[in-house]
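Hello,

Following up on my earlier ticket. Below are the two sequence lines again, exactly as submitted.
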Amino acid sequence: MLIDTFAKGDNLVVKVRGELDLLTAETFRNIVEKDLLKNKSLNLILDLDKVTFIDSSGLGVILGRYRRIREQGGKMAITGAKPHVLRILELAGIIKIVNLYENTEEALEGVR
Amino acid sequence: MQTLNIIKLNILSKPENVAVARVAVAAFVAQIDLTVEELEDIKVAVSEAISNSIIHGYENKDDQWVEIIARRFSQAFEITISDQGKGIEDIKKAMEPAFSSDPSRMGLGFVFMQSFMDEVDVVSEPGMGTAVKLVKKLAVVQGTPN
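Thanks for your patience. The regenerated structure is below:
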């Protein structure tokens, strides 16, 4: 798994590439937490376009970041989720609580 | 039901081996034409069962063994994931949505296994380990032996 992050205004954009499972979930959490703190970001945008696999371990860290963002009064958005990722998000009920967007530009508009 | 093919895989209980095992099982089941969705279903279910063995069965000790046996029948695949870990006290409770013995986890592992597979059977004894049998029935009967 590779993670790229960049801050834009109040938002942290996180682009994930590869597999989000038991092995990579902790790395994901550590990087996102570190960059949220470093940039003092209010909102989090997760770009899952290049995620090739996700299971409940990957989902757990996404939901954990959602809770944290909500606690600080921010918004979380997910972009680019492909069908295999979307099914997992649906099953866990995440799409009822997090807005989904086609791409990062739309998400940046949406969380404003 | 006649067994058409079997693979048996033993992995150490390390998180990096979860991907190795699910890719191996995916390659095994992909010997026949499955839909992308069926293949994903099996990968997620196998990943959940092995992750459970590592996290719960072996409480993240990474020097224990998880055994994966995948069998192909003409009308189904059956994958059994076994560990010799601490076992499950109350299987019914462990399979409830959102139940997890670890508060930082979501308790969705069994939910995903049950959603993505046609059968999920769990055999477990406290102190004796756990075996999870996952069955995926095939829409089209394949590979009828001569």
